[in-house]
Amino acid sequence: MLLSGCTAHYPINHKILRVEPRYGYYIDNPTPATRSDSLLVMLAFSGGGTRAAAFAYGVLEKLAHTDIIWDGKRRRLLDEVDMISSVSGGSFAAAYFGLFGERIFEEFEQKFLKTDVQGALRGRLLSPASWLRLWSSLYHRSELAASYYDEILFEGKTMGDIQDRGGPFVIINATEISLGGQFGFEQRQFDLLCSDAGRFPVSRAVAASSAVPILFSPITLQNFAGSCAHALPEWAIQALDKGDLSAREYQPASRARALLDREKMPFVHLLDGGLSDNLGIRPILDLVSISGGAWNALKALGRPHTRRVVVIVVNAQTATGDEEIGRLEQVPLTYSFQSAASVPLNSYSFETLSLIRGLMNTWDEDITIGRCWELAKQGLDQTGCYDIDHFLIEVSFDQIQHEARRERLKRLPTSFQLPAESVDELRRAAADILEQSADFKRMLRDQIRAPARSMPSQPSR
């Protein structure tokens, strides 16, 4: 028995011998589906334990009950979702919907939202049956959690199973702790490791995304860089050659170069995705950045006919501080620890939202200029090439009008255990916020072509 415990080992990610751009778990390789190619809808689910999962679930419910008429066809807005990017608690809802679609509305509440997941994990940790595996230095608490998530939610499915179902494409995000950057469970990231993202278990990806430091251990991947003849991507080479440390492309390029050095970095250790981006927005920003602009990003996604870009950010961020602390002469130690984690994350989230709001204002012009001039260059009809608009819709507790309700939800703990009534209130609040959102209403009204605008006189690039 002791010998079996000592030999317990985390699962090894699958090695690949060559990169296959047309077949991997790439965002630009979606399985054909019925979604419109002129409406691009992306969701971002934040961290926050069961609170975040329930809030995201409420948004999915609302989208399922929202009909739109697009290109003359009536359909649910939920069926138009192309991509979900998630971190931490939000990854449970994103992964389950990506794998099972409509089943989420039949099962997810009882399987996860209204289950004492925290208590069950604690019970497994204290179980003598688990002690044997945990005795090993290569099997830790997060692997135990991943096994439990597989049992109650993910049924042994892999990331490739999400793509096989037909979407939406789901990027589950963690944080690589030695390099300090975001790590997304998608094939471009795994190409650097010469590994197969499609065969990676969803349960381990979610466990990494929600591995809160101290409470959980890192999820470890092996780095096989050099075994698949994969070189640094062109965008990364250009960013490093420019040497502009302040450029958005430089940091991910620097991390990509480090991952390609297997001798210096034979292992990749992952913790909670909220440590690097607690909103899940970064993959969307990085896609535009490394593509060289919004128009190039649309072409990379195979979506050159896009007329509307909708980004819905589901932010389950709680209150940053406590005014009562200001009345005390001595701050409790527990509050100091809590503030050390929450204050930087909340401030960073605010900056990220401001960043994407500012950048999206430039996307329309970039897409218009790029599309119109490419059509002109090819001698093709340019009618409607200027028809592009964007909608950034935030769903957060700060938008709740009723003060008592707002403060009650903002004080919910970040844990994997919430009372059933709190789960229901979170779901209702998400739906109410969307329904009252001015941006959401504007998006629903805007189901026809935009008014004609004059074509730009010259390209900006």
Produce the secondary structure layout:
Elements: H1 2-6, E1 39-45, H2 49-64, E2 67-70, E3 73-76, E4 81-87, H3 90-100, H4 104-113, H5 117-126, H6 128-134, H7 141-154, H8 159-165, E5 169-176, E6 181-184, H9 187-191, H10 202-209, E7 219-222, H11 234-242, H12 250-259, E8 267-272, H13 282-291, H14 294-300, E9 308-315, H15 333-377, E10 389-396, H16 403-410, H17 420-436, H18 438-445
Parallel strand pairs: 1-4, 1-9, 4-5, 9-10
Antiparallel strand pairs: 2-3, 5-6, 5-8, 7-8
Give a verbal description of the structure:
This protein is an alpha/beta fold. The protein contains 18 helices and 10 strands. It has helices at residues 2-6, 49-64, 90-100, 104-113, 117-126, 128-134, 141-154, 159-165, 187-191, 202-209, 234-242, 250-259, 282-291, 294-300, 333-377, 403-410, 420-436, 438-445, and strands at 39-45, 67-70, 73-76, 81-87, 169-176, 181-184, 219-222, 267-272, 308-315, 389-396. Strands 1, 4, 5, 6, 7, 8, 9 and 10 form an 8-stranded mixed beta sheet that branches. Strands 2-3 form a two-stranded antiparallel ribbon. Strand 2 (67-70) and strand 3 form a beta hairpin. The N and C termini lie far apart (66 Å). Mean pLDDT is 86; it is low at 1-5, 333-343 and 448-461.
